[in-house]
Design goal:
Elements lengths: L15 H9 L2 H6 L5 H14 L4 H25 L3 H8 L2 H34 L3 H16 L8 H24 L3 H7 L5 H4 L1 H12 L4 H12 L8 H36 L12 H11 L2 H34 L5 H23 L4 H27 L2 H4 L6 H28 L1
């Protein structure tokens, strides 16, 4: 893997800047896939169909929160020279690190389950494949991607980048077809008091934020940043790396935010009559309603984008699983072996429930995966914050007290949100 090691203390010549940016580019865009996975689609579609453009502000806030947390991971990794999983293993008592590893593995399985189902739904919409068969096909496709030559290098990143580009192009096209009102779009980006007063608006707003920050993205980003850092890099070089990696992150998550906003906007245009019925559509319902209100072409594009989003997300989830295993247990697994472990753990409940209850159990499985993710997030955020406050770990890249206070507040809010969302979703499902 190419590493970042500029000449210390010297400004880079102008001719070297594009090459250096290309060397750094990648981690943010791979992580951005998790910000527009099928779980995000469900909340965006529900928000757009029920409240039009009003909750675009929640998408904006979720994107900003994600940028901040992922930027913290970039700085922590560059300061320590280690990924988050390895840092937790080295800096916390063994029983604590093993407990966090167990929770992290649960998060990997829950993530994998949701992404598998997203791909399976897309295959059903495109080719009529039953959900059970789609789950198996999606699992096999991930194995194929991870079996590519150079699977420990940038090959999977490039495949994921192509799939992400498909999602972006598809929803850009959807927006052109839907033709949302520009004034209404801009107005929706401004938070309103109604978002806090209306219980359903509040629930969906929190759902959008809660579906954005997921544990596997923190581990994944940390591991990818570490792969680009030269072991001998000094503080000046690490600051340069932080600058380029933050540009990469900001551009990628801004793009993911635009996609989520586009999903909500398309739903607002296509399903504007659904709000009167009192029922928010699921992903399959959205596909059917989209075809009826905008046209068959829009429905086809929607399904293609869903397949690309699901397959890219499940691939990045497996990549995150590799980083977790290697960091916590110091066991270096082949990509296919790691994928087999996570896939098997996700496939068991999926195949068991789908085999007995049929395609109608998809929503139940999606709820199960989201509750699991919500419950695991605080167990990853707390050790991350403790590491960020450790000056021995951060060294010359220690952050300002104000930044740390804001990080603490955000983590506290997300922890409360995760617990509330998990409890509410479990009670209402």
């Amino acid at each position: 893997m190419t590493t970042f090691s500029p000449t210390a203390g010297r400004p880079a010549p102008a001719s070297a800047l594009p090459r250096r940016f290309w060397t750094m580019m990648g981690p943010g865009f791979v992580v951005a896939v998790g910000y527009m996975d099928p779980g995000n689609w469900a909340t965006d579609i529900a928000a757009g169909s029920r409240f039009g453009f009003a909750l675009l502000a929640a998408v904006l806030l979720a994107s900003l929160a994600g940028m901040f947390l992922q930027a913290l991971i970039v700085r922590l990794t560059l300061a320590s020279g280690q990924d988050l999983a390895r840092l937790i293993r080295n800096r916390f008592p063994r029983p604590v690190s093993l407990a966090i590893w167990g929770v992290s593995e649960l998060a990997m399985v829950a993530t994998d389950l949701a992404e598998l189902l997203g791909s399976a739904i897309a295959l059903k919409l495109l080719f009529g494949v039953p959900i059970l068969g789609g789950v198996l096909i999606a699992a096999a496709a991930t194995f194929a991607i991870l079996a590519l030559p150079g699977a420990r290098g940038r090959a999977p990143e490039l495949v994921v980048g192509v799939l992400m580009a498909v999602v972006v192009v598809c929803f850009g096209w959807e927006l052109l077809i839907a033709k949302p009102d520009a004034g209404a779009l801009l107005a929706g980006l401004v938070p309103s008091l109604e978002m806090a007063r209306d219980p359903e608006m509040l629930y969906l707003s929190l759902g959008i934020v809660g579906a954005t920050v997921m544990p596997h993205n923190l581990f994944l980003h940390s591991g990818l940043v570490r792969s680009r850092l030269a072991a001998e890099a000094n503080d000046a070089e690490r600051r340069h790396a932080a600058r380029w990696l933050t540009i990469d992150l900001t551009a990628a998550l801004a793009l993911a935010g635009l996609v989520n906003g586009a999903i909500l906007a398309v739903a607002a245009v296509a399903f504007q009559d659904v709000a009167a019925t009192g029922a928010a559509p699921g992903i399959e319902d959205a596909h059917a309603l989209l075809g009826g209100s905008i046209g068959g072409g829009a429905a086809l594009i929607f399904a293609v984008a869903l397949l690309a989003a699901g397959q890219s997300s499940t691939t990045t989830g497996t990549m995150a699983g590799q980083i977790v295993t290697e960091g916590f247990l110091d066991i270096r697994l082949r990509p296919l072996v790691r994928a087999a472990i996570t896939r098997s753990a996700a496939l068991v409940p999926a195949l068991a429930i789908l085999g007995s209850a049929g395609d109608g159990a998809v929503d139940e499985l999606l709820v199960l995966s989201q509750v699991a993710l919500a419950l695991t997030l605080p167990f990853i955020l707390l050790p991350m914050l403790l590491l960020l406050r450790d000056r021995e770990v951060m060294g010359g890249l220690a952050m300002a007290p104000l930044t740390l206070r804001f990080a603490n507040i955000l983590a506290l809010v997300l922890t409360g949100l995760s617990g509330w969302m998990a409890g509410t979703t479990a009670l209402t499902s």
